[in-house]
Amino acid sequence: MSVTGTRPAGRPRSERAEKAIVDATLDLIGEGASVSELSIEAVAARAGVGKTTIYRRWANKEELVGDALATLKAPLPVVAGRTVREDLVAYLDVMRQDSLHVRTRCIMNIAMSDQERHPRLYERFHQTAIEPRRAAMRAVLERGVATGELRADLDVELAMGMLTGTMLWYTKAASHGGALPSPDLASRIVDEALRGFRSAQA
Amino acid sequence: MSVTGTRPAGRPRSERAEKAIVDATLDLIGEGASVSELSIEAVAARAGVGKTTIYRRWANKEELVGDALATLKAPLPVVAGRTVREDLVAYLDVMRQDSLHVRTRCIMNIAMSDQERHPRLYERFHQTAIEPRRAAMRAVLERGVATGELRADLDVELAMGMLTGTMLWYTKAASHGGALPSPDLASRIVDEALRGFRSAQA
Amino acid sequence: MSVTGTRPAGRPRSERAEKAIVDATLDLIGEGASVSELSIEAVAARAGVGKTTIYRRWANKEELVGDALATLKAPLPVVAGRTVREDLVAYLDVMRQDSLHVRTRCIMNIAMSDQERHPRLYERFHQTAIEPRRAAMRAVLERGVATGELRADLDVELAMGMLTGTMLWYTKAASHGGALPSPDLASRIVDEALRGFRSAQA
Amino acid sequence: MSVTGTRPAGRPRSERAEKAIVDATLDLIGEGASVSELSIEAVAARAGVGKTTIYRRWANKEELVGDALATLKAPLPVVAGRTVREDLVAYLDVMRQDSLHVRTRCIMNIAMSDQERHPRLYERFHQTAIEPRRAAMRAVLERGVATGELRADLDVELAMGMLTGTMLWYTKAASHGGALPSPDLASRIVDEALRGFRSAQA
DNA sequence: TTTTAACCGAGACGGTACGTCCCGTCTTTTT
DNA sequence: AAAAAGACGGGACGTACCGTCTCGGTTAAAA
User: Fold this and answer.
1) From the UniProt annotation, which stretches of this protein bind DNA (chains A, B, C, D) (predicted)?
2) Which end of chain A is more exposed for a tag (fewer CB within 10 A), N or C?
3) Can you give the CATH number for the domain in which B38 is found?
4) B89 and B30, same structural domain?
C-alpha cells in the first residue's frame, strides 16, 4: 500500500546528471557562448552525459538556459541600514563588482540581450535575479522616505531606475572601453542622485 | 583602351545587389534574428542573390551586420536651445520613441547585446549611433554649466550616464512588461535629474 | 534443507512473460522486420513487458530470434509411401504452400538470409526445420533406390539438392514477381527430375 | 545563347565523390554489413565525404545500396558453344566460383535476403545481375532443343530453375557447413540434370 | 510467520546513427 | 571579372533504439 507522495515507477532521474548539465551550460555561457552558439552537443560532452538525458528534462535550449540562469542565486548583500546612502552604495557596488567577472558579464548579456528573442528566458531571469534586488532597493528608498531622509514626494520607481540604469550603463561603457569601472563609481552615482532625492530639511 | 579614372576590367559590381543584401539583412534583423541566428543563406535568398556575392563583399556575418547597422543614420533631433530642460527632454524622448518600433528595438538589441561577442560591431555602432548623440547631449549640459543654469561642479559625464542609462533601463523594462513607456517619461526623468544638477541660484 | 529438483529461491520466472515475448517476436518478424530491424524495445512494448525481462533471459537479439524460430515446429507431412513420385510431390508441395504465407516467408527469409551474419541462428533453424525434412526426403529416395524404382547409382544428396533447390528458387522467383507459384509446380519439378533419376527398367 | 544539352548552372556534382561513396558502400557490404547495419555515417567517413553529399544523391540507404549493387557488372563468361553440357557447366561454375568470395557472398545475401523488405532493391539487382545470366542460359538450352540435343518438349524455364536453384542451394549449404563446394559440382549437377533433359536419340 | 532472494514493470542512463539544415568554400556557366 | 547557381566537407539539430542500470513492488521458498 503506497502513501501519498509516492515516487513514480522506474529509475529516478540522477541529480548528479542534472547538476552536471546545468554546470556545463553555465561554464559554456561563461566562456562566451550565446544562446544560439551554445550547442547541446557541447553541453552533453562537457557534462559527460548523453544528449538524451538533456532532452528528457528540457524541451529545448532555451528552457535549459533558463533553468541554468535561474540556478544562479543572486546573493544580496546584507546592508547596514544606517543611512540610505550607505545602503544604496552597497547595492550598486555589488553590480559593479559583478561586472568585473567575465562569467557574470556573459550571463547578463545572454539574459538581457535575448530578451526580445527568448522572452520566457528573460522573464525567469527577471523574477529570480532582478526583482529581488529591486525589492531590496525599493525597501531602502521607502525607508528613507519614511524617516524623512528622502523627499516625501520622491518617485521611488523612477529613483530606482536612475540608480540601476546609470550603473548598468556605466559598467557596459567601461567594459566596452576596456577600462574597469572606477571603484568609487557607486558612491559617485549615489551622491549625485541623492542631491535630488533628499528632503529639504535633510 | 581606357581613360583616366578607368573602371577595373570586367563586370562591375552591381549596386542593386549590394543594396538588396543590406536591406535583406536589416529586414531579417528587424524580424528578430540575432547575429548568430541570422543566416547568410536567408539573406541571400531574400535578396535574390548568390551567397558568393555576399562573401565577395564581406568577410563574415559580423562585417555585413556592421555595415548594415551603420547604414542606419541616426537623425539627431534639432533642439530649440532655450532651456537645458527642453533640450534634454527632446533628446531623451527620441530614445523613447525609437523604442516603440520593433525594428529599432531589435537593432539596439543586436548592437548592444553582442558587444562582448562582436566587439568591432559594437564599436562601429557606438561611433555612428551613440557617440554623436552623446556629443550633442554633452554640449547641452556644458552650455547649461556655462550659463549657470547647472552647477559649476557638475560631473557632466556622470550626468549623461544618469540620463541615458535611466531611459535605456526604462525602455527595456517597459518593452519587457509589454507596456509602452509613458509618454511623459522623458520629462519625468529630466525633472528628477535636474533637481540635483541645477545650481543653487537657479 | 532442500530436496532434489527443488526450485531456486526467489520468485520464479513468469511463463506468461516468456510466452508473450516469443509471440511478440514472431509477430514482428511476421510483419516483415529483419533481425536488425526488429527492435527489442518494440518486442517489449508489444509483449507488455520490461526490457529487463527480455535481457534476463536472452543475451542478445539473435538468441531471442533463434528461440522464437525454434518454437515453430515444422509439422512434416505424413506420406503415403506408395510411389517415390507421390511422396516427393507431397514434400515439395508443403514447401510451396508454406511460401504462400507471408509469415512463413518472412521467417524463411530471416533464417536463410542472415546465415552469414547470424550463423548460430541459421544453425538452429537448420537443425530444427531443415534437417528433419531432409532426412524424410532422403528416406524416400533411398527407399526408391532399394526398391529399384530409382537408379542404383543415384547420388541421393545431389538429387535432394536438385529437388529442394529448384523449389526454393521457384518460390522465391514467384514471390518476387508477385505471382503465386503454380499449384502443379511440385509435380512438374518431380516429374522432370525423376526422368533422370529413374532406373532403366522402371 | 545556349545550345541544347547545356549543363545546368552551378557546380556540377563530383564524379570522384560519387565513385568514392559507391566504393565505400560496397566495401562495407563486403565486410559483412547488412542493409540495416550499414551506416550512412560510416559510408561518408570511409568515402571522405560529407553526409550531405550522399543524401543529395540518394534519398535513403536502400537507394544507395541499390545503385551500389547495380554497379557490379556481372561479367558473363564467354561460352564455347560446342555442347550444351560444356556451356551449362561453364555458367554454373561461375556461380560456384563467385560463392568462394566473401564479398560476392555478402552482396548476394543482401540482395536476395532483403527482397521482402527492400523489394525495389531486389528488383534492380534482378534486372542487372540475374536476368542477363538467365537469358544466356536460356539461349544455351533453346539452342540445345533446336539442335535436337535436348528434348523437344523440354520446359526450358523449369530446366533453368533446376540448374540455378540446385547450384544456389549447394553453395549456400556448403558455405554454411564451412566446406567449399566441390570443384566438380557444376559438372555433377549438369550431368544429373541432362539425364532427364536429353532427347531419346541423343 | 517472517525473512529473503529473485523476479517484475517502468524508466533513466551514456551512446550511436538517423536524416535535415546551415555554415563558409569551391566550381561552373552566364552576363 | 562579377553574377547566379548550386555542390562540397563539416557540424549541430532533435529523434529513435541500443543494451545497461536502478528503482519500488511482487511472489514464493527457506528459516
Assistant:
1) 39-58
2) N
3) 1.10.10.60
4) no
